[in-house]
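Re: beginner question about structure tokens

> Can someone show what the tokenized structure looks like for a real chain? I only ever see the sequence side.

Sure, here's an example I had lying around. Input first:
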Amino acid sequence: MLIDLHTHTARLSYDSQLSPDDLIEAAKAAGLDGICLTEHDFTWDPEEVRSLARRHRFLVLPGMEVNTGHGHVLAYGLPRYVFGMDKVEVLARLAREAGAVLVAAHPYRRQVPWEPGKDGAWEEALGRALANPCYPHVCAIEAFNGRGKEHENRFSRELAERLGLPMVAGSDAHNPADVGTCATEFLRPVRDLDDLMDALRRGLFRPVVLREPGLTRPSG
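And the corresponding structure tokens:
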């Protein structure tokens, strides 16, 4: 199953140009099997998510993108934003208490060097990133972000490899052109949020880039 783990709508994310309905229809047209609504520091009402899923006959799951002092974190299984979540330690504790799962979003931001080709800059930036206190609390790294540049996503992949963490992919969709750039392939059926979180914990997934030459939707 191909699921976009990282999307935004104008309903709850101030910087998105996508209505929920337009996002879902674009995801269906792109050949995806599901999406996660991960608004900035907001969660959807569960019944509204179920209503969207029924209306479109499409897998729609709730999530949240939490803005912390050490980067953005995708959270699945947290019922709401709580004051203090901008601190990684608080977010991690609340996630543990709720049985939620955390994924580091676009880790290249504020970490990739301004001049990647400058002598030593790349390694120095990776060294700083490896010390980020956020990463011990996540189960995966978003190694492909649909809005990231090639060298930015390469930084994320190298970081994931050095941390020994699995990789996911998400479009980070804010407008129609973003939808369907990349997604995460789950290696077993995902029917609901519990299935998603279990698969993330077990590492039963891989990142898929859908628009680069030579990379197409996997069979099976």
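Each token stands for a local structural state, so reading them left to right follows the chain. The radius of gyration is 16 Å.
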